[in-house]
Amino acid sequence: MGKLVYEQGCFKLRARGQPLQTIIWHSHFSLLSRDGKTGVVDETSGESAFAGDEIRIGGGVVDSVGSNVENYARARECGAPYTSANTLRRVKP
Asked: Do residues 25 and 85 lie in contact, with contact meaning Cβ atoms separated by under 8 Å?
């Protein structure tokens, strides 16, 4: 669990006690923009979250990204460490 951060075109997870992690979204996630905020939506579940929201993601930390990752170049620019996300849940305040 952590805060969804969007900076310099990169989504990151700020989890307590851990370094900022670049999120590698699975292919069923899409970019979302509403009221000047940037976020993502899980096209499978319909769940969405925006920068600043507390979230839970299913997946895990990965050491590196392979060239088979969508937006491989962007992921490399955003930098390690990486975390993979195949599910998303916004934590309600």
From this structure: yes
